[in-house]
Amino acid sequence: MKLRKLIPVAAMAAFAAAGCNPVEEVRLAAEVAGTYSGWSKAEFQYSPTPMASDAQTITVTEETDETVSVNYTSDTWGTFTLTGVTVTESNGTYTLSGSGTTVMGMSAESQSEYECTLTATVSGTSDFSFVFEVPAVMGGLTITVSPGEIPASLLLSGTYTGTLNMSVMGSPMDPVEDATVVLEVAEDNSAVLTISSFGMGMMTLEDIAVDVEIAEAADGSYTLTAESIDTTAGDINVTGSLSGMVSADGSSITVNAEITPGAMPMSITVEFEGTK
Predict the structure, then answer these.
(1) What are phi and psi of 94, to 5 degrees?
(2) Is the pTM of this model over 0.85?
């Protein structure tokens, strides 16, 4: 009889203990709320090269246990506002998804509102990816915000347009306006610089592609060096050397080269200054 009485009492005690120690619910929204800083990559139909922007900030604010609001303001792309963004979790990685609006325009007077969507993964403030998609802008605009700084392959790569000056033995030739230099930087920082065709008549040289070494300077700019050029411009062999610099933000470039086409007895001095 005593054993039968003890079993119900033990069960009641277990239930009472469980009531005193409730299982704490995980607030997913609280886990991802905060500020995320990094750089952005913008891809759209009308440009083969993505546009990169530094010093980007996204703010995630808790709404309910499983929803957040996301705010992102970009000097280049405008303001993104999304509410009711859902948060899920799997193996320590949080996924955010939702939709909202962005306000974009070349000036305050020309701004318009567009629909946008967000997909994001967050494993921490230094391990995240926020992807905003705006289908109605520029043939479909996708902006990805990631931690860290812009890779040199994106920051420096592109087409620079400016003025190309040439001289032979100190005698200047007519400058070439709207000349272009294309810099292509791979993820391993190997790079090729291509000077667009220049000259006139029988003295015209086709595009010259040069392998260059890139190094970051103390002031944040990037130096370009090719100590020994041995390449071709069409069917003509070209030798010489090249140096240059790209600004820290990747917006401008200067190039100085001494090149000798074929069997020409003297070299051509080439100077170029341009911007993206």
Answers:
(1) -100, 140
(2) no
